[in-house]
Every structure is written in C-alpha cells, then in structure tokens.
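Notes from the 1:1 (GR / supervisor)

We went over the backlog. Supervisor wanted to see one worked example end to end before approving the batch request, so GR pasted a single chain during the call. The sequence is below; no edits were made to it. Supervisor asked that the structure be written out right there so they could see what the output format looks like.
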Amino acid sequence: MLIMQKDQLSDRYDVRGRGAASNPAVRFDATHREVFDDGWDIAEDLPVLRTQVREEIAKSIISTNRSPDLSFDRSINPYRGCEHGCIYCYARPSHAFLGLSPGLDFETLLTVKPNAAALLDAALRKPAYRPETIAIGTNTDPYQPVEKTRRIMRAVLQVLSDFSHPTAIVTKGTLIARDIDILAPMAAKGLLRVGISVTTLDPAMSRKLEPRVPAPQARLRVIRQLSDAGIPVRVMVSPVIPALTDHEVEDILAAAKAAGAVAASSIILRLPREVAPLFRDWLAEHVPDRAARVMNRVRELHGGKDYDADFGKRMTGQGVWADLQRQRFRRAAKRLGLDRTLPPLRCDLFAAPARAGDQLSLF
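Structure output shown during the call:
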C-alpha cells in the first residue's frame, strides 16, 4: 500500500516536467497541512518526483451515465489518474474520491485495474446485457505512458474485439498505434472509431500545458497511421483555451485533415472544482502577461464564474465569444469536409465467443 502525501510536494521534490506545481487539499478531508519556511532548512538539490503505481482489484469495470450532452451511456477507465499531466484536465477532481489531491497526486499516484479484461468479459456474457457503444478515455487516457508496460487497455480491447462490441476511443497517446492489429479489423466491421485530441500545434506551448503528452506532430502522425489502416479518426480540438490557443483552431483542423482525419469536434476549456485554481496558478507562472485576459474570457463564457456545470453549457460556453467560436469552427470544418457525422457503430454483430468447455451450438 502506498503512503499518500497530501502536502506541498513541490517543497520536497523537483516537479519539473509535471503539469501542476502544487498539491491542493482534498476537499473531503476534515483537516489539511500547509508547508512554510521556518528558516531551518538547508539548501539542497531536491529529488525528482517519480510516478508511483498501485493495483486495484476492481469490482466492476463498466461505468454508466445519463448525461444529456454526452453521446454514450457507458464507459471504461482502465486507469485512475493520468501521467500526461494536462493542467486543464477536467478529470482531476475525481482523484479526491480516492483521498488524493487533484494536483500532483493526480499525475504521479496512479491506479491500475489488472482484472479489467476479466471483469469486462464477465459483464458482456450476462444474459441481460444489451450492447451499445462503450467509450474509453473519457476520464483518463487509456494510452498514457503506464500502458506501455501494463497493457490493461490492450487486454480490454481484445475482449471488445472478441465480442464484436462497438467501441469509441479518445486519446492523446501515440501508443494507440501499437494496437492497430486489433483496431483495424474492428473498424473494417464498423465497430470502431477513434478521437485524437490536439490542443495546440505549438510544441513549446504543448510541453507546458500537457507536459507528458506526445508532441503535436507525433499526434498528427498517428492520425495518419490510423487512417492508413482504415480506422476513422475524428480530430478533437479540445480544449479551446481563450486568448491562448483559440487562434489555432483553423490550423489544427487543416493539419488534421492533411493527416487523414475524417471528422472534427471541439470543446471549450472546462475548469471544474480544483482545476480552476490549479489553472490560474499555471497561467501566473507560464503566461503572466495573458493570465488576466484568459480568465476574464473564461468567466465571460461561464456567466461570470470560472465554470458552469449546467448540461448544454459546460462544454460550449455561452455569450458572444462562444457564438463566434462556434461559427469559426463550423465554417472551417465545413470548408475542409470535416463537418460530417460519423455513422453509428454496429451493435448487430455482438456475440459472446465460445469458451473452453462451453457446450457447442446445434445451429
């Protein structure tokens, strides 16, 4: 069992290469600690803050939702936390349910679910189960660096392929190309679509915003790899950050189209709960000259608040700037032929594969 620290890790470790610079208190804790300089510390080089991974024997693997502004009602998350470290990640507050901070804990204290594939196999075999598209990557990235050695996502994907189950994947990770041998046959049967998120084309800005995500050009190359394998790819211009990345929308769409993307979508920056102060701190450190302008625009989008969680508004914003942004995106997408709606994934092919010892069918 890991000993989870919730104080200011940045005072005890070198946190370069991480998105967050601090570890805010967990909102469910009755007490919290604050670190202060009492003048007694001896100056020394700080150790690097390393990623730690623990295993969780999960009891279930398919999560369900009834959100009216989501296109899916079920999802799978092979991991808790995400080493990509995107400072804007709306999933950061979910770490508080584990008693961990949405700050540095979220990107350094990860949980893997080694029994995910077995749980999925059992769930899909239940007589009452009815297939609909399963979304993967909606909370944390299934192709974050830890997947290279843990291979939880690949095992889950193999189960979905065996059952001919419709699947939608969202990722920033280029590791997805490793699984083309599973993905391409699924796509050929109308069972798969992939969304690749591109926030900016500027590698320097990307490294600051999303420090452990593959560079923008690497993501464009993986769009090409997937497209060449017959896998339909939607470029996700998200999040669009006002006064920071919004000027790149047309360029991102054009680059993704050239790489083989067949559709596009866009989501405005979301700053729920602890994400807002983390993001404000990031602005003050990395783009102080634009910090006030960015947050003023964000609040304009959300009715004067850092974030409005209302369905229908949380991912689009409201007001004049939001309307103009939607028009820009739609015009650019239409001009490039990326405004298409991808066909629904097939559910009629779903069938449980035979297991050793199963009675053979007479038909």
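Supervisor's comment: Residues 1-6 have pLDDT under 50 and may be disordered.
Batch request approved.
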